[in-house]
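S1.2 Input.
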Amino acid sequence: MELGAFSVSLNVKDIEVSKSFYEKLGFQVFMGDTAQNWLIMQNGGHTIGLFQGMFEKNILTFNPGWDQNGNTLDSFTDVRDLQRELKARGLKIESEADESVTGPASFMVIDPDGNPILIDQHL
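S1.3 Output.
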């Protein structure tokens, strides 16, 4: 099962303070807008998202259709197909993607320790 690009989406208290901290660890802004309270930062092949006031917990995020640099892949498994496969494997889907449409969609599962895992397709 190919889930796409991986990142950790962090719920931060102050995006500027967090940006400065992660820059000291060698991360650089890849995309985003501090005025909108979100940034994506990279250090080599490692990606983190900083999000202020957008969600309660840190989230493990997978993006079907993207490589680690946000480039569109020639082929990938659609988020709705991933959702159907995970349901068939017995996982409870916390918030479901609408399977009657195509294009961008997302769904979420929660791991046994309460960690949210977001499968978020932007294409």
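S1.4 Remarks. The two ends are 18 Å apart (CA to CA).
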